[in-house]
Design a protein that fits this description.
Blueprint lengths: L12 H4 L3 E5 L9 H5 L3 E4 L6 E7 L4 E5 L2 E7 L5 E7 L5 E10 L4 E5 L2 E7 L5 E7 L6 E10 L4 E5 L2 E7 L5 E7 L5 E11 L4 E7 L2 E10 L5 E8 L3 E2 L3 E7 L3 E6 L2 E7 L6 E6 L6 E5 L8 E6 L2 E7 L6 E8 L9 E2 L3 H6 L6 E4 L15 E8 L3 E13 L3 E3 L4 E5 L4 E13 L1 H4 L8 E8 L2 E6 L5 E3 L2 E6 L6 E2 L1 H4 L4 E4 L4 E3 L10 E4 L7 E4 L20 E2 L2 E3 L4 E3 L8 H16 L9 E3 L21
Parallel strand pairs: 1-38, 29-44, 30-43
Antiparallel strand pairs: 1-42, 2-28, 2-29, 3-27, 4-5, 5-6, 6-7, 8-9, 9-10, 10-11, 12-13, 13-14, 14-15, 16-17, 17-18, 18-19, 18-20, 21-22, 22-23, 23-24, 25-26, 26-27, 30-31, 31-34, 32-33, 32-41, 33-46, 34-35, 35-36, 37-38, 38-39, 40-41, 45-47
Pfam family, one: DUF6242_C
Organism: Byssothecium circinans
Protein name: DUF6242 domain-containing protein
Length: 614
């Protein structure tokens, strides 16, 4: 018997075990194919990678440097004054997190004479201290730096000396000091006649050799960013404003001689970056898609600039992002996007599909047309993953005091990818066994969380077709037999945030039995060489399908799309704002994130172990 590419599964099994989908009667966005999702959209690129958490590590302001094949990060704990250190070989996996037995508020770090050096102020005073380490794990010192005091120093190696710049704790004026061995400091003097609190340093090429570049916010002019450059022969150049850029703390580094800085906006937490070939003229760019950034640190390592920062939420979780070759300027968006364009993105997850609003907003979207599927197997079973692609999902559904509503834009996002999986006895060696073809169970997935149910606990529509309830707007898959018609996420009494299924509160249903219609069943798969198993070459796409942005309560309607009454709208606004204040609103509803493409999913790889919970 013929089988599907990359698997021994008989082709007719895909329709034989396909689920029936029970949509809510007011659903307006239905499963589509990739060509529909791409219609009218563009393929865009974000130079900075999506921020990832650095384990369980937390701080307000980190510092980082590359040394002996690692990125080393030092920081003060978010809830203590202890200095911590951790390191990474790739910027993603961080190890050897430990306290180094010293306390401060904000440390600075640099490499000098094949050692790591940190300078920092005391926890209970502005007195400066210095420590060093040959491996980042075992530290010498600390020793006092006599006669110098600050709270936020900057440190860099320049002309075979270690230079430190800082704002004096006494008068806020900028000072510099230098050391030939890291321990003994001299030539302490004012650098420039400006007041600041947080200078940043790096080294870039100049007209007559290397020069030290300092960028700092001018505290007397609304944190206007200022630059000045230093050589031992010429001293500091007159300070110059960096036009249009303001911040309270700057992260500064360089890549192949090009200066690069990153900072949070002066009036919000949005991140920005700039590059300069000479320290004078700067190219500016907004850094998108970084959650809630605070004060960043930059580090050049390998072919990338890494950015580390503590989030500005209460726990100050540390995040990491990176940009290749220091290139912060994205290419122009590509229109008329095809599957080949998505395949050409290769292994780079920074590409994303800017989905046209017309493909998912409004009330005249086409009905369901497509079921994607992927197949994996082991010795005893086949696993059919049914994948449902949507051009977007509308706002969060809630229940108020006697009425149901859907919010805009809370909970919405362009693009949506939902997953349901069936385990069937058979597989590589069990196809002729006594249980071959029987359903062992299914996985229902909603919001990335899969729940396993044995066959006896599954609501069946007909024969081997499971009845899967898709929640209104968010399309999450639920087992109504076990989980009920309205699985709540937040139950605050008079106000409920939930997943409204068909028959929730007596609502109507749209039943889709795709195997009985002209629905297209299209296989997605990647073989052991990383190549698509068929003509669905977009299977390798790892980028985001849809934009990312902050959401807010713009408006709300009843489930049928009609406007709320004045009283119901007032109640919705009041209770929602109260929910925000007492932190009852799930954080994922406040950020719209398009889903990752299939190339980032375990189930698309036919050669890997089965990608479902067991």
């Amino acid at each position: 018997m013929a089988s599907l590419p990359g698997t021994s599964l008989p082709p007719d099994y895909v329709k034989k075990y396909a689920p029936s989908i029970k949509f809510h009667g007011n659903e307006r966005v239905f499963p589509c194919d990739i060509e529909y999702l791409l219609g009218g959209g563009t393929l865009d690129y974000r130079p900075w990678s999506e921020a990832e958490k650095v384990g369980s590590q937390r701080t307000g302001v980190p510092a980082a440097v590359a040394f002996n094949g690692y990125i080393y990060m030092v920081y003060t704990g978010a809830h203590d004054a202890e200095i911590w250190v951790t390191r990474s070989r790739n910027g993603n996996e961080w190890t050897d997190m430990r306290k180094i037995g010293q306390q401060t508020s904000v440390p600075a770090i640099a490499v000098f004479k094949n050692k790591l050096w940190i300078t920092y102020s005391g926890h209970h005073s502005a007195q400066m201290y210095v420590s060093c380490s040959s491996d980042g794990l075992n530290w010498e010192g600390p020793r006092q730096i006599q006669g110098q005091s600050t709270h936020v120093p900057a440190l860099v190696q320049f002309e075979n000396r270690l230079y430190m710049c800082y704002a004096s704790d006494f008068d806020g004026q900028l000072y510099q000091s230098q050391s030939d061995d890291g321990w003994n400091w001299y030539n302490t003097k004012r650098s420039v006649d400006r007041k600041t609190s947080t200078p940043a340093l790096t080294v870039i090429p100049g007209p007559h050799g290397d020069q030290m570049l300092m960028v700092y916010p001018d505290n007397q002019r609304n944190h206007q960013l200022v630059q000045t450059r230093y050589t031992s022969s010429g001293g500091w150049t007159p300070p110059q404003d960096i036009a249009g850029q303001q911040a309270s703390i700057v992260g500064l580094s360089n890549y192949s001689g090009v200066a690069i800085m990153a900072y949070s906006g002066n009036t919000n937490s949005q991140l920005f970056s700039s590059t300069s070939n000479d320290g004078i003229n700067w190219t500016f760019s907004e850094i998108l898609f970084q959650g809630s950034p605070f004060y960043p640190a930059l580090c050049s390592f390998g072919e990338k600039i890494y950015m580390l920062y503590g989030g500005n939420d209460e726990d100050k979780q540390i995040y990491v992002s990176s940009v290749k070759h220091g290139n912060i300027t994205p290419p122009p968006p590509k229109p008329n996007v095809s599957q080949q364009d998505l395949a050409n993105c290769g292994d780079d997850p920074n590409w994303w599909i800017n989905i046209a609003d017309r493909q998912w907003r409004g009330d005249k979207n086409p009905g369901p047309t497509t079921v994607y599927f992927a197949v994996q197997e082991d010795d005893s079973a086949w696993y059919i993953h049914y994948i449902f692609l949507y051009a977007g999902q509308n706002g969060q559904t809630v229940r108020g005091g006697g009425f149901n509503a859907q919010l805009k834009s809370i909970g919405e996002h362009p693009g949506d990818l939902e997953h349901f999986a069936v385990k069937i006895w058979g597989g590589t060696h069990g196809a002729a066994g006594p249980n071959a073809g029987q359903v062992a169970g299914c996985w229902f997935e909603a919001h990335g969380n899969s729940r396993w149910y044995e066959a006896k606990d599954i609501p069946w529509d007909v024969d081997n077709h499971a009845a899967v309830s898709a929640a209104l707007n968010n399309h999450g898959h639920w087992n109504a037999k076990i989980e009920g018609d309205n699985p709540l996420e937040v139950d605050a009494g008079v106000f409920k945030i939930g997943n409204f299924l068909s028959h929730s509160w007596g609502d109507s249903e749209i039943l889709w039995q795709p195997w009985l219609t002209t629905t297209k069943f299209l296989q997605l798969g990647i073989d052991s060489t990383g190549r698509p198993v068929n003509d669905q070459i977009w299977a390798t796409f790892r980028g985001r399908m849809g934009d990312s942005y902050k959401t807010d309560l713009d408006s709300a309607t009843y489930f049928n799309g009609s406007n709320l009454s004045a009283g119901d709208w007032a109640e919705t606004k009041t209770i929602f704002k109260l929910g925000e204040f007492i932190k009852k609103i799930p954080s994922d509803l406040l950020t719209a994130d398009g889903p990752r493409g299939p190339g980032d999913r375990g189930w698309v790889k036919t050669s890997l172990p089965v990608s479902v919970p067991k």
